[in-house]
Amino acid sequence: MIKVEHVSKYFGNDKMAVEDISFQVEAGETLVLLGTSGCGKTTTLRMINLLLTPSSGNIYVNGRNIKEQSPEILRRGIGYVMQDNGLFPHYTVAENIAVVPRLLKWETQRIQSRTTTLLQKLHLPPAEYQQAYPRQLSGGQQQRVGLARALAADPPVLLMDEPFGALDPVTRSNVRKEFKSLDELQKKTIIMVTHDVQEAFELGDRICLLNKGRIQQIGTPAALLFKPANDFVSTFFGSQRLQLELQTVTLQDIWAYLPVQNKTSKTGEKLLSASTSCWEALEVTSNGQPLIIQHHQENKQADNQLLMAAFSQYKNK
Ligand SMILES: Nc1ncnc2c1ncn2[C@@H]1O[C@H](COP(=O)(O)OP(=O)(O)OP(=O)(O)O)[C@@H](O)[C@H]1O
Question: The ABC transporter domain covers which part of the protein (predicted)?
């Protein structure tokens, strides 16, 4: 769906922002560009919708080299969500959402109906919000409108630049969960920029970790944790590593190391599916509550200690 081939970007003659990066994002996949400030994430993202022109290399969207398309036409198929939401302050919420559909000359009724649908899905009751101006909304609400605007014409591709960056940690975590469960996003091909490791692990099917304009590793969250490509990757997660590992490894992964339980759950025991992460399971057992896990008609039992012991065995296998 998106193919980036040996792309470099220099500002002026010698300011290297991105050097020889290549990656591919499949249809329906979410790739997160992760890295510390200045590593080239935003530059990479902005080259894909031609807000910046690569100094060398090629980018293909849906099989077509973007060089061969006009930026305006290209961008109609690519939604773009900015960190500061980029809403027009003198447009109402409804007018902001209608920007691309108007460019596409949709009929008024179709625009209205699409706006209403999106506002409902994003938990902004249309009667209350469609005539409001951005300044009358909270940061989280503005960010939702920014997303609604990017989704309005149902583009197959979505580029998101630190979409939750301006929000406080609690709002950030809530809006992130909402984004994750939004049906409109399920089939989109998404490239998202963040410097927040938690966010990258929560939302990315794969993560592309950058440093100083170069790709260090691209892979699933589990691959970056358990099969780091180099020292930079293995030290990048620092003190967050254990939590990330527990969030990434599921009860199914540690199944072989848990004791069998030949009974169904009884009162006081929580029943979890094997796709639950070890982290979520520990949240249950940390208050002393044992749990039963179900997988392929087999039950296993676990408490805090059993979970951690099985996790250690899995890691050392
Ligand atoms: N217009 C520009 N002119 C000159 N240098 C630039 C320009 N835009 C970005 N750079 C430089 O290119 C490098 C990569 O910047 P970029 O914004 O892509 O990084 P980033 O990883 O997105 O950082 P942040 O997380 O802080 O947004 C940085 O060193 C930056 O200073």
Answer: 2-237
**β-pairing, 2-11 with 15-25?**
antiparallel
Q: Which two tokens stand for residue 110?
A: 């179709």
- Choose the most confident range, by mean pLDDT, from 157-166, 242-251, 255-264: 242-251
Ligand 1 atom nearest 12 alpha carbon: 4
> What is d(CA 133, CA 87) in angstroms, rounded to the nearest whole number?
9
Q: How far away, in angstroms, is 34 Cα from ligand 1 center? A: 14
Tell me how far CA of residue 73 lies from CA of 78, 90, 150, in angstroms: 9, 25, 15
Q: String of b and e for 123-153 (b: at least 16 CB within 10 Å)?
A: ebebeebbeeebeebebbbbbbbbbbbbbbb
Extract the tokens encoding 240: 């967050």
Ligand 1 centroid to 228 CA: how many Å?
A: 26
Q: How far apart are CA 23 and CA 249, in angstroms?
A: 25
- Ligand 1, atom 11, lies closest to the CA of 17
Entry pTM: 0.90
pLDDT tens column, 277-290: 999 999 988 887 78
Which atom of ligand 1 is found nearest the CA of 40? Answer: 18
Sign of the four-CA dihedral 251, 179, 203, 196: negative
Q: What is the ipTM of this complex?
A: 0.96
| Residue bearing the CA closest to ligand 1, atom 4 | 11
Residues forming a β-bridge with 272 = 293
Helices (H) and strands (E) counted in the chain, each on its own, are 15, 13
